[in-house]
Amino acid sequence: MARTETFGAHYRIMNGRTSAGDKVYDIDRWLLRSFLNGIGEPQIRAMLWDGKEVFRPDSTCSVGMAIHDRATLLRLIANPLLNFGDDYSAGRIEIDGDLVVFMEAIYRAMDKKRRSARLAAYRRKQPDTNSLAGSHSNIHHHYDIGNDFYQLWLDREMLYTCAYFPQPTSSLEDAQIAKMDLVCRKLRLKHGQTVVEAGCGWGAMARHMARHYGVSVRSFNISHEQIVYARERAKAEGLDGQVEYVEDDYRNISGCYDAFVSVGMLEHVGPKHYLELGKVIDRSLTESGLGLIHTIGQNIPQPMSPWLLKRIFPGSYPPTLREMMDIFEPFGLSVLDVENLRLHYAKTLEHWLDRFENNRERIADMFDESFVRTWRLYLSGAIANFNIGNLQLFQVVFTRPRNNQVPWTRSHLFGAPAEV
Amino acid sequence: MARTETFGAHYRIMNGRTSAGDKVYDIDRWLLRSFLNGIGEPQIRAMLWDGKEVFRPDSTCSVGMAIHDRATLLRLIANPLLNFGDDYSAGRIEIDGDLVVFMEAIYRAMDKKRRSARLAAYRRKQPDTNSLAGSHSNIHHHYDIGNDFYQLWLDREMLYTCAYFPQPTSSLEDAQIAKMDLVCRKLRLKHGQTVVEAGCGWGAMARHMARHYGVSVRSFNISHEQIVYARERAKAEGLDGQVEYVEDDYRNISGCYDAFVSVGMLEHVGPKHYLELGKVIDRSLTESGLGLIHTIGQNIPQPMSPWLLKRIFPGSYPPTLREMMDIFEPFGLSVLDVENLRLHYAKTLEHWLDRFENNRERIADMFDESFVRTWRLYLSGAIANFNIGNLQLFQVVFTRPRNNQVPWTRSHLFGAPAEV
Predict the structure, then answer these.
(1) B345 vs B18, more confident
(2) Bridge partners of A194?
(3) Which residues of A touch B321 (CB under 8 A)?
(4) pLDDT, tens digit, for every residue of B325-364?
(5) Cα separation of A150 and A93, whole Å?
(6) DSSP-derived 3-state class of residue A337
(7) Closest to B263 in 3D by CA, of B221, B213, B309
(8) Which of A137, A176, A278, B20 could form a disulfide with A327 if both were Cys (CB 3.0 to 4.6 A apart)?
(9) Average of per-residue pLDDT across A97-124
(10) What are phi and psi of A246, to 5 degrees?
């Protein structure tokens, strides 16, 4: 499996190219060592283009990095948060051992150094690019690259958000269905109710709600490819009378609904727009309506890595719970329930990465080898971030402050007898 | 039951006193009407000392207020948030109908007017009085007034915090035991573990944990009366080998524990001291330790009523979730679970108020009639605040950011089979 690469592959790539210089000078070794010491001495081995190990903080390091040439080394030192990813994608940096373990080692080291001026300088305040037009462009960048591609590694319902594994050994297909059920139960959906969905991906949640809970759903999304797929599938499954997919921004939601649901959209909203989202919720919920937001989050506010912002998710940001209160507090909305599913996202991503790797040759044919490496790094880095607790997954249930028609306990989430 | 008073009682009080003036002038009626219009036209009837109704915004008003004399009227207008309570306690304001319904009507009206300059002027920024010495004095004020008194209306385990009613019809005794079990399950307590408790009341939680979960507990409290009671009871129940009650401030907690628990103390900590509390938690939790804070909260930050601060709970403040993040965020602590038990607190308080009223004659003998009225108003106002959603009850579970030994799902809270 390609997650576990070897330096052997690296040498083959190096041998097929013109390297910046065959010779490794003492200054190169000094630069690499200083750099790795500076980012917190990650538990990794490191070597330069002569194949000799330069850095090994611990004899037990199971992962390593090989740098192809001097230009790559200098780029890495100049801006590691951006250039590590780009040079990995281009094959100028190779990883020996499990990429997830490697990324965990890097993140752990950087976390130790988090408050140091040096790393802070690499991370700049994240600009807001989520105007109506900006969001459209940001979403297009990631979600409109081809439904065929996503079908290769997502579950058959095409959910591209954290699943809920009733048991750690549950399958991804079961876990995505369990996630949809968990959301429906948290919203206490009842036959005949109306639901509005902000950000619907390929539409699975809306179809599940309509099919299994007998509700009518209006789902908003600005990804054209996803909307086309969602509409076709709803029609094929005879659900188009109950589900309406609207190709429009969440800010243009109109009408009043028994439930508001948003799974995996808040990451793309941007903190400066949380008040607008709160306004949308405030005008969309009936007096006894329940709402649920499912989002990647953080314990401490930190901007996204510049590489992820540039190559994978432009305009994205995972909020802290404190930041999420900008949605609820101005409208006095009452938070009823928060569940943190962090380790479920690590597991979801592991399933995706396995399926991705199993299809890497087809994906390389659809795009190119650099694309495969870019996405491998993104998925592996995400697993690492969830595993070590840099990222969280929050499901937040809320309602209007005066609504007393709220679930009495949470026993309904587990199939226990309904309370009085 | 005294919650449902009648104006008849009011007239008897009036007849036994010298009123400020028998005659009601037009200016008195105008002042009362203007005042009630100014606080948002509460759905109450109102009359002055001649017994004639002056204000009735709606023919369906089931509750009313009678003001005994002109001085009371002027005090009410000058500072309603402080003087309504004091004049009610002194019997110079009488309520016709259910006091809880009356308070709900007042709070609903004030909420409509919340942003008006007039009411804002009544509420000032709450001073911090929770230094080590300040906290001692604040806690002494409320909790050291006599264990005999609290035994008259709390459950037999002496829990003075929100219960958890598995069914709305559960008894208070059962609901308090269910609450303790819920907390223990959320903390996943295991035999042989160690627990530190910040603020332990009369010690019921520590005894329950020791008896039913086989853990050792160190409980901190600065109420001398409570500590004396807790120690005696632990000894009588043979739990003094497992439970240690320490008469000291939470800021002096030392040692390292598998669990941190604090039920109903955060209300007395004050937002300026949340960072200190976070430091205590950060130094007290083992690497895989879980923590739980159970506290009254709010959706929107508002200071406590000055009457409650002065007469009932000096130095107290119910935080918003955003404000609570001052405990967790500086230390990167990970919030795993938030549950809002607002309506459970309304129900808990209803049980307490019923028991309180059933013992009002004994309580009047222990203190005096004014004390009975003060506490009746405090308990009734609290029911109203929870009923209409001005107050929340948050249970927050947290852990260290790197701890992956966290519960996989929440099914263990409901007696479902444990997951792998």
Answers:
(1) B345
(2) A216
(3) 321, 325, 335
(4) 999 999 999 999 999 999 999 999 999 999 999 999 999 9
(5) 26
(6) strand
(7) B221
(8) A278
(9) 76
(10) -110, 120
The DSSP code sequence of A19-38 is -S-S---HHHHHHHHHHHHH
Average pLDDT of chain A to the nearest whole number: 91
Distance CA A388, CA A100 (A): 11
How confident is the model over A354-383, as pLDDT tens digits? 999 999 999 999 999 999 999 999 999 999
- ipTM comes to 0.93
Provide DSSP, A62-114.
--EEEE--HHHHHHHHH-HHHHHHHHHHTTSEEEEEEHHHHHHHHHHHHHHTT
For the domain made up of A4-122, give the CATH fold. Answer: Nonspecific Lipid-transfer Protein; Chain A (3.30.1050)
Q: Report chain B's C-alpha Rg in angstroms.
A: 23
Predicted model pTM: 0.93
- Taking an 8 Å cut-off on Cβ atoms, the answer to whether B404 and A387 are in contact is yes
Looking from the CA of B321 toward its CB, the CA atoms found within 13 Å total: 31
How distant, in Å, are the alpha carbons of A379, A419, B33, B157, B179 from that of A416? 36, 9, 52, 28, 18
**B contact test, residue of A112, A292, A322 with most B CBs within 10 A:** A322
3-state helix, strand, coil in chain A (%, to 5): 50, 15, 35
Residue boundaries of the structural domains of chain A:
4-122, 132-414
User: Which tokens is A377 given?
Assistant: 């790094």
Give the C-alpha separation, A110 to A184, whole Å. 39
Asked if the B132-414 domain carries CATH number 3.40.50.150, the reply is yes
Distance CA A218, CA A254 (A): 10
Tokens of B132: 């080590």
Identity of the amino acid at A336:
L
